[in-house]
DNA sequence: TTGTACGCGTTATCAT
DNA sequence: ATGATAACGCGTACAA
């Protein structure tokens, strides 16, 4: 009682399954009249090829597996949107699977893809490199996105977190801010690590006299709120906060204002990601064009699958600073102390 | 040179493929010693079953197809997140496909799923019912989400847009607002239609003396801005705006304030969806728990697939009003005029 | 307990 | 131009 198969079509058109396959796939070695009879039979039966059987026979699924961590809302959807756009443009479907924080589960998720997809897109800023390498089926093409390092012969895309952090430090120093505090992301996350390191390096180079102050966080709003309370309570000078992502910046912003601090007059606040909220709150941030990165990852993977160049280099994507009101330049020089 | 197959494992363990299959699938009719030899061989070869072949043999793919329209960011990701949570909990993968505005493309997207998934989740508030029905493979189980009507024997979930709109009208009237303008969503979209109709009906019942005023929009921020300009320019009284979604409400809010209107003192503003932005802008809105709806849709589909009751009823999800500052009650009675 | 052989729905090879 | 048939990798009757 299932769907009609190629055999049903063959029977109805009174030809062999081979001819049906040829006709339906547009091969030219089939007589016009025969072709028409086949097409008619197919239409009458509402025949649709069985993609599973097809991919078994062709050894190509025309699907690519996408394994993402638990991303903050807008980031996730934009990433998938970018991927889907490019994938559907090139005739591929996306098989989705969330990889939670656990390395074990990540391996399971990756194995589940075997035999259903032609290649993998893996974003894993929080999985140790060796674990990732081990979990990745050796023969399955894969493109890494923001992995915590490079794996030989695996093409990869990376966001240039360091450059973003550096740009922000330059921007803040240029605005007359001197005592910049960084709110870091989760420890195991490469993006967080690189942003923190970029902050450290930029400060060491551009303002070597300033002490480097970093408060730990976890990318959630609450961490930003906690950091704000710590900053307000502390006697250490602080005239600017650079959070490792927008959500923490936003939490910080709110709490600072509630505590009576004026932003940016007393303390400037900046984030990273440029989530839609950032624009509405006039939050200075680093724009990460995640949809573009996703689309590009798909494109590289498909190029690989179709033999159009197996470029195995790591591609660095430069983020861009978006200056808004929360980091307006200081007007006087009363920054010290 | 591909991955190891079940045959390779059989050869290495010196047994038949049947025994390998049995051992790997945990059947009990295999001797302990044999099983261990098989397990060892599988591990040594890094064998992972080929899901494609498996599903062809079992006639079950353990995957479900998700066909969504081009959703606004957060809405999309939350929906997919909810679906993925439930799907992975029950051992299914999600095959994603965006269905753009075109009915033709929708049909193509649906057909591409044949032979790869066990069932379909379709959200199509913008596709005419007949087109949707025609495009849906007759024998493939499917759960409809916010479809523009009901299809016999197809289980469905719906957001109760009318109830949401009515709750908002009650809230606004209760706050002393009298001249409420509705900014509608795109014409072909059921959610938009139902919200507008709910607005009309509620007003007709609760404030029959008030004229019903509706400005057309398209769910985008710009439409809200345009509506705001129209409201400001018009001589018709207006002390409250109820937009069919948050993004339009937000656009409206900004433009009204830029035009010197105080919100909510001069004009109250409300939206629909409760996107994260809404909370930060203190926008009154209707909370739509889309992740929950997505998870529930998956759950119903899998129940169906596994024979645990083929409940074909339409399930109505009640949204909830979230009152925030943009619709604070009027303090005096100077509303008329 | 174990093995042989067939079927799942296609495509591709090799005849004719 | 067309047809018979062997793959593709797996599960599972059925036989032993």
Please tell me about this protein's structure:
Two copies of one chain form a homodimer. Chain A is of the alpha/beta class. Chain A has three domains: 6-58, lambda repressor-like DNA-binding domains (434 Repressor (Amino-terminal Domain)); 63-159 and 289-317, 3-Layer(aba) Sandwich (Rossmann fold); 161-288 and 321-335, Rossmann fold (3-Layer(aba) Sandwich). In chain A, 44% of the residues lie in helices and 15% in strands. Chain A has a six-stranded parallel sheet, sandwiched between helices. In chain A, helix 5 (73-89) links the parallel strand 1 and strand 2 (93-98). In chain A, helix 2 crosses helix 3 (32-45). The termini of chain A are far apart. The interface between A and B is large, with 49 and 49 residues. Strand 2 of chain A pairs antiparallel with strand 2 of chain B.
